[in-house]
Write a structure and sequence with these properties.
Layout (H helix, E strand, L loop, with lengths): L1 H19 L4 E6 L10 H5 L3 H21 L4 E6 L17 E3 L18 E7 L18 E6 L2 E3 L1 H11 L4 E7 H10 L4 E10 L2 E4 L2 H17 L13 E7 L2 H7 L6 E4 L2 E6 L2 H14 L3
Parallel strand pairs: 1-2, 1-4, 2-3, 4-7, 7-8
Antiparallel strand pairs: 5-6, 5-10, 8-9, 10-12, 11-12
Helix pairs in contact: 3-6, 4-8, 7-8
The chain binds zinc ion.
Length: 291
């Protein structure tokens, strides 16, 4: 009797409970330098690119599958490396939708908005000039340092402030160890996975790609399960964007942006009303500069 009433309760409330379980919309941004097995520019855009490219796709697919297993109702993937056309749409997990191509105003986080419940960064890397950051850079080698409200950030930081603007938590990140450590400081409570240890700018000790994918899948599931405990980051407004460029002529070019201030020969500063404007201005500085 007890057994049948329990069964009745399950039949009654099981499906209702599942339906009542609210949507879980996941945003996934995928870069390439922080993918397991990759350590050189030849792999991220040169002679070894076609060999390395499927490694990026496989890590994206591992994260997508794990997100759906963890209850995701929608996954949007943004290709966030170089031309932003690295992920072959026909080989991506068919349950996900893909944002592809360049230029897009919000670059690495195009399409992210307040309708999402969680953000994941795969294949990310440390900021420019960080010790032992494998292929560490911030957009391009023309940007020596980028600071948001006085704090040094990499691409994860400018992308992360958009998530913060929309009050969506960044719950899981993967990349090289230097990045994972930076990310833990920037996104308190984030699940951060190091898939390789930097030996230098173009050398690393890396997990086997299949092992990295298993760890990514496990990490994504854990992170999504405890996403309510991970708070979105808060970015104080106005947002002060400060960029130190490599040469004065690139700072001269940045001064074409109305409202840009010159701090010194190679450094420019912009006071943005919010993170959205700050992001677009940081993209503009990069686009106006020459490598
Ligand atoms: Zn990058």
């Amino acid at each position: 009797m007890l057994r049948s009433s329990l069964l009745g309760a399950i039949l009654l409330f099981g499906p209702t409970g599942a339906a009542a379980q609210s949507k879980l919309k996941v945003y996934l941004s995928v870069d390439m330098e922080g993918i397991a097995g990759i350590a050189t520019a030849a792999q991220t855009g040169g002679s070894d690119y076609e060999w390395a490219r499927p490694l990026m796709l496989a890590e994206a697919n591992a994260a997508i599958a794990a997100a759906f297993e963890a209850g995701a109702t929608e996954v949007v993937v943004n290709d966030a490396h170089g031309s932003h056309t690295n992920l072959r749409a026909d080989q991506l997990d068919r349950r996900a939708t893909l944002v592809t191509g360049q230029p897009k105003p919000y670059g690495m986080v195009e399409g992210l908005d307040g309708s999402f419940d969680a953000v994941i960064f795969i294949g990310y890397h440390g900021h420019a000039n960080q010790v032992d950051a494998v292929l560490g850079h911030t957009y391009s080698h023309a940007l020596r340092h980028a600071r948001i409200n006085g704090r040094e950030v990499g691409e994860y930081g400018t992308a992360g402030m958009i998530a913060g603007h929309y009050r969506v938590p960044v719950v899981f990140v993967s990349g090289d160890r230097a990045f994972a450590e930076e990310a833990k400081r920037f996104f308190p409570g984030v699940e951060a996975l190091a898939v390789k240890d930097g030996i230098g700018f173009t050398a690393a000790k890396t997990l086997h790609p299949s092992v990295a994918r298993e760890k990514i899948a496990a990490g994504v599931k854990t992170a999504l399960a405890r996403r309510s405990q991970i708070a979105p980051i808060t970015i104080a407004t106005p947002v002060i964007v400060e960029v130190e460029l490599d040469i004065a002529s690139n700072a001269d070019a940045a001064m074409f942006v109305p409202g840009m201030e010159r701090v010194d020969g190679v450094t420019v500063r912009y006071r943005a009303p919010d993170a959205l404007v700050a992001y677009r201005v940081s993209r503009l500085i990069r686009m106006l500069s020459r490598d």
